[in-house]
Amino acid sequence: MFDVVLNRDQEIRIRDSFLAKTLVHCYPHDPENLDLFLIKRTVSSPYANIHGSPLNGCFLGPFSTVDISTLHDCIIGTYAYVQVGDLSHKQIDPGQIWIKNGNVFDFSFRFPKEVLDNYISFEPDKGVQGILMDFVEERETAFQRIFETVHIEPVSTPVGASLSRYAVLKPKNRIGENVLVSQRAYLENAWMGKGANAQKNCYVVHSRLEGFNVMAHGAKVIHTRLGKKTFAGFNAFLRGKPEAPLIIGEECIIMPHTIIDLDEPLDIPPAHLVWGYIRNRNDLKKHCVSLDKLSEAGGEFALGNMRFRGNGSQFVQSFKDRIEHILTDNGAYFDGEEKRGHAQKGQNIAFNIIQPYTRGGLKGIYPTIDISP
User: Which burial class, exposed, middle or buried, applies to 57 when counting CB atoms under 10 A from its CB (0-12, 13-18, 19+)?
Assistant: First the structure.
């Protein structure tokens, strides 16, 4: 780790690109261009995440995520997740989950095509369809009303908590201290314990977060209880049912792009890593490992379709460090005076809503925009 002095403010440049309902999170990490976040000649499909990832000449499929990586001339398939550093001239298959840190560790899993197609698929003659698309589109009108309304009566919040004016809040929500609810989050009958957060494009429906929970962009929980300090990864879909609730123990790590869609009640023990597609207890056995056991892994480790190579302890610790970093940055540990984070600093934030052309040949396209301080 080393400090780099910047000579100018950070810039975001999106040029010659087409981004459809894409979340963009600015986090430049190129040592030679730390003040520049560049997305160039890139096409991104609905509900993809570009999370701190400079891109040049790439295509991102629907519900895919590129996380803190630099990509050149790549195709990222539908519902694929990559966190691999630098990647050039590669095609990532749909449903591929790949996390790699040099020679330190390498985690990979791929959804079977017949499973993935049921939840999300993208075909030229049919468009984007599946359970995930249906889930978000059924709730899209609630967001339209939020953005079309000029004045919305503010909701009172506890000490240190922050609810975005552009989040959807359905009835019967409980918001604890230091909770952060970001724009385009959706809460319905949600219990948000102290220090929990629902980041952008997250859905918390008939669910309870016990506290200090991290929900990464696009995570969805339905009829679920998350124990303290659990992590729900990017675009994870965790759906219990009234007759088959999902209970996730404390300090569990739910990997990005995990699908849990229950046909029976399920209780996941504390401090476990979970991935893949899970419907019942038998599926859990093949898609779950304790953090202690994984930390002991060195060399090769496989379970079901998951393959891991490298230092298990470093892999687990990197996740724990990232969770703590997010909680700290979000202000989960605010004590009334110190340890302020986004939940406290963002309470008086201002938004600029930029609209595309509403008619004519350019309808739906945003004009050329240059925003300067």
Answer: middle
pLDDT tens readout for residues 128-160: 999 999 999 999 999 988 887 767 777 778 889
291-310 per-residue burial string, b: 16 or more CB within 10 A, e: under 16: beebbebeeebebeebebbb
**CB atoms < 10 A from the CB of 14, how many?**
18
Does 120 fall in a domain? no
On whether both 165 and 81 belong to a single domain, the answer is no
Entry pTM: 0.92
Domain that holds residue 96: 11-114
Residues, the chain, total? 373
Answer yes or no: do 284 and 150 share one domain: yes
State how far the Cα of 150 lies from the Cα of 188, in Å rounded to an integer.
22
Give me the CATH number covering residue 217.
2.160.10.10
HEC per residue, 97-125: EEEEECCCEEEEEECCHHHHHHHCEEECC
Residue 82 and residue 205 in one domain: no
150 assigned to some structural domain: yes
* pLDDT tens per residue, range 188-209: 999 999 999 999 999 999 999 9
Choice between 64 and 16, residue whose per-residue pLDDT is larger = 64
Residue 45's Cβ-count burial label (10 Å; 0-12, 13-18, 19+) is buried
H-type alpha helices, 202-280 = none
